[in-house]
Amino acid sequence: MFRQVKKRVSSRRNFDDSPNGMILGGQGAEEEQKLYSSLYETKLSFYEFPPQGEITLDQFETWAIDRLKVLLEIESCIQRSKTGKETELIIKPLFQKLLPFNTDNLEDRKKDYYSHFILRLCFCRTKELREKFVRVETALFKIRFNMMTSHEQLRFVEHLKLPDMQFITEEEKQELATQLYQTMSPVLQFQLNLTDENQRRQYFKQERFIKLPFESVMELVGSRQVFVKRGFAYLPQVQQINHIANEFATRLEADLLATFQNLPKLNEDDRLLPVLHHLSSGYTVADFQHQEQFGQSSQGEVTAASVHTHEVKDNFPLCAENLMEALEKNHHLRYQGRQQLSFFLKGIGMGVDEALKFWSDAFTRGGYITIDKFNKEYRYNFRHNYGLEGNRINYKPWDCRTILSKPRPSRGEHHGCPYRDWNVERLTAKLSQAMNLTPAQVTSVLDSVRRTEYTVACTKVFEMTHGGQVGVEINDQTHIAHPNLYYERSKQLQKGVH
């Protein structure tokens, strides 16, 4: 993806053309340590100053992709209406693996800081991208804040020195005690699970309140979660993250606009532009980074006969199910459909010998194609998919990004993504009648389809048809952006049932 350009571009002024692909200037290790100690006086940051130092082009791309994976998973959780606690449980493993923040390690801090600013360059280009980036980065900020201890939270708030973060006196709290407790009590009961009245009273007694202009926490005013008097909202300390997150979002939005205005200067370095375009274009579709594992541990499990059984077919995503139904009905698939289904079956563990038997049976069963014609016109293609002909490339199963990049199916074709390619009536009938989804669930899936969030729609369907994934051990992203990932997780659940 990155072009390690060694020639010097005459118009390049802001970037050095070093042999190691270093970018963004340079400074000593001691100075860099001091810089990040000042930027990270606490475990969170508002990213107020641009990073300084040296990173390689490989770090530039890798760090940005790792952060992007975290943001994509958070966005998927938001679109699937996950609660804050559910999202936090899903994101925690990704933090440990891709973006550690609860650490004093210099490299972790450096990765966090650089990756944030790199993605600013990617997502400042349009209003839609800016809004998405602000929304998801703010959600990331909230999750991180809630994962800190109360002492760390207090230290961070004091470090910010926000002018509106002024705590009221004990006298003012006592004067408004009745109104403040009445407003705060539902929050303690439903958000902190303090069902006992005495527990809530004790918590209220120790809680501090912040007095600030009501427009700073409009979403809490609208839901009556704060007491308002004379234009001021009284915010419990337990809910201070709402105001701090609003301040973070406001500043980030302004910074993104400033970045967009200065973006033309990047034309001076032709190494970065392809990378930034690649990252921003991939924002709506996540890659599943372990797709090379598909089929490796299960070769031979799926045969030409067993692929037709419920034990196997019941785990298919809608795209693979659609291709199988078309193949059984027509005894043929056109090229794109053959490729998509062939690679999927390879990924679920169908070896080449069983694949040739499966495809020859499927094509010749209808009586339109003889075995001689199959061997002459199609056998080479399927052997090629397994790396046994031509350049002998071991092709990987197509992920959702690849499937969505192919031309839409025309009449007589069945490849592609049903969530994108089917009309509303056909998709609704499939979801409600064949999958037994409720009207509310169908509406939720169709809402994602209308927003062109096809992988989110597929992930929702998986969760709705698999009981919220109860019993599935998730060590990576829950967002499904690969048909074979859908199959693997469904198979895991199936084994747990039996």
What does this structure look like?
With 498 residues, this protein is mainly alpha-helical. It folds into three domains: 172 residues, Transcription Elongation Factor S-II, Chain A (Up-down Bundle); 77 residues, no CATH class; 207 residues. It contains 24 helices and six strands. A four-stranded antiparallel beta sheet has the order 3-4-6-5. The longest helix is centred in the first third of the chain and has 23 residues. The chain is elongated, with a radius of gyration of 27 Å.
What is this entry, summarized?
This protein is mainly alpha-helical. It is built from 24 helices and six strands.
Descriptive labels:
498 residues, mainly alpha, Transcription Elongation Factor S-II, Chain A, 3 domains, 4-stranded antiparallel β-sheet, two-stranded antiparallel sheet, 24 helices, 6 strands, 4% strand, disordered N terminus, iron-sulfur, metal-binding, primosome, metal ion binding, DNA binding
Distance between the termini: 44 Å
Structural class: mainly alpha
Work out the count of structural domains.
3
Largest sheet, in brief, is:
4 strands, antiparallel
Pfam families: DNA_primase_lrg (PF04104), DNA_primase_lrg_N (PF26466)
Organism: Lachancea mirantina
Binding site for [4Fe-4S] cluster: 319, 400, 417, 458
Family: Belongs to the eukaryotic-type primase large subunit family.
